[in-house]
Amino acid sequence: MTPRLVFGHNSMMQTNIRHRQTNRHAAVQRRLGSYGQTNGPTVVVVAGMHGNEPSGIFAFLDLLDELQASNVPLAGRIIGLAGNLSALQQGVRFIDRDLNRVWLAAKNPSNSVHDVKDSGPPKLEPPFRCDPLVIETRERDELYREIKQILAEANGPCYFVDLHTTSSQSPPFMPLDDTLRNRDFVRNFPVPAVLGLEEVLPGTLLSYLNEYEVVTFGYEAGQHDDPQSIVLHREMMWCALQFAGCLSKSSRRRVEQASETLREHSGELLGFYEVLFRHGLKPHDEFRMDQGFSSFQPVKAGQRVAEQNGAVVKAPFTGRMFMPLYQSKGDDGFFLIRQIPSVWLQLSRWLRKWRCERWLGWLPGVDVPRGDARQVLVNPHVALFMVRQVFHLLGYRRSGELNGRIRYVRRDR
Questions:
Q1: Of 35, 53, 167, 341, whose CB count within 10 A is highest?
Q2: Residue at which a domain ends, from 266, 287, 321
Q3: Do 283 and 392 belong together in one domain?
């Protein structure tokens, strides 16, 4: 068989990208550009992790032009990074592997930005063999080197935002790993926030970075080809600069304008939501989502939502549709979410601050290996009552199974 030729990218090579609906073109490198100074907060924008989602890149370039044209004073800096350059050039979600599924969390949950400066972050351990023919391996490793350099140069707090769009119509929303620092930052935005994706989508860039005590969150601006997604990405970045403490009072009116734009497109959906169900797909499944579904749309238990391998797929319970699949690539058919009551969020804050995980070992069916509460094992035949809810309150996420027991890992705070 003729060997496949693979041409990798490096930081200095240019990639031509295009937005299909607006027909905008741009020649970009891994580092899209930066603005500001190294002293102060650092806001890092990652865009184009999926090659059919170029809106974030055009939005960052527009923001950069606006900052430079108005000579906006910035206490800190903003840096843009392109994700999957190979897939962006072809306009497809990925080439060999989903670039946003090939990151593993750091071995040591206590790593911080200071650890990165002193000894460098732990070596990435890909969940698949580092085959040189896997293009996303190279894309990930190069993006990793850029991020490592940025963290080493940082002289203040760091904020990482991963810009995305969806295949269906959707209001803007913010997925995030459920840590208190992430929650506190994201609640500033007039946009709904979604918790729990990291439990069902392992290996994301933000979950990896979350181990370094930096603020991490995603931002989904709308449908892939909708020109409005570019606008909503740009306006969100104005708000992020404000909430990170980078902007002066002279930019107040511009930030108010950006905030109002986000609020108009979020409607009545403000608050925190939790992913409760994922309809996963296998490589050879024939899946077709029924037309007309959008994120946050209410659905009822038993309602038909899709067809898979000739069989009807129904919603298993009443909730809200989330990220229905309307593209050829992807193994997530759809999700279901529900809003989290504010009292539940406040209770989880108290329990985490009081470090109540210290008493987990007293609960029936819960094993705390070697007394280290960062990882616990739960016997599902003994611990029967509200297990997932209790562990979420304490800041844990489900992370697979071990010898018939469910493993929960505590997120960094």
A1: 53
A2: 266
A3: no
Q: 165 and 215 share a domain?
A: yes
Q: Are 330 and 92 in contact (CB under 8 A)?
A: no
User: Tell me, what amino acid is at 188?
Assistant: N
Backbone angles phi, psi at 212, to 5 degrees: -105, 20
Domain C-terminal end among 339, 366, 394: 339
Distance CA 212, CA 107 (A): 11
Q: Are residues 314 and 364 in the same domain?
A: no
Phi and psi at residue 238, to the nearest 5°: -60, -45
Cα separation, 301 vs 294, in Å, equals 17
Mean pLDDT, 10 residues at a time, the chain of 413 residues: 39 84 94 95 98 97 98 97 96 94 59 40 44 82 92 94 94 96 97 94 90 92 95 98 97 98 94 96 95 96 98 98 92 96 96 92 91 90 87 91 91 73
Total tally of structural domains belonging to the chain: 3
d(CA 91, CA 71): 33
Number of other CB atoms surrounding residue 253 within 10 Å: 9
Q: What is the DSSP string of 155-201?
A: BS-EEEEEEEEESS----BEEE---HHHHHHHTTSSS-EEE-HHHHS
Strands (DSSP E) found in 60-147: 77-82
Interatomic CA distance for residues 390 and 250, integer angstroms: 45
Contacts of 308 (CB under 8 A, 6+ apart): 281, 285, 286, 287, 288, 333
Examine the domain organization and report whether 146 and 31 are in the same domain. Answer: yes
**379 shares its domain with 327:** no
SS3 304: strand
DSSP string, 327-373: SSS-SEEEEEEEEPPHHHHHHHHHHHHTTGGGGGGGSTTEE-GGG-T
Terminal-residue alpha carbon distance, the chain: 51
Both 182 and 49 in one domain: the answer is yes
- Asked whether residue 326 falls in the same domain as residue 354, the answer is no
Residues 261 and 296 in one domain: no
Give the global pTM.
Answer: 0.89
Its domain, for residue 292, covers: 272-339
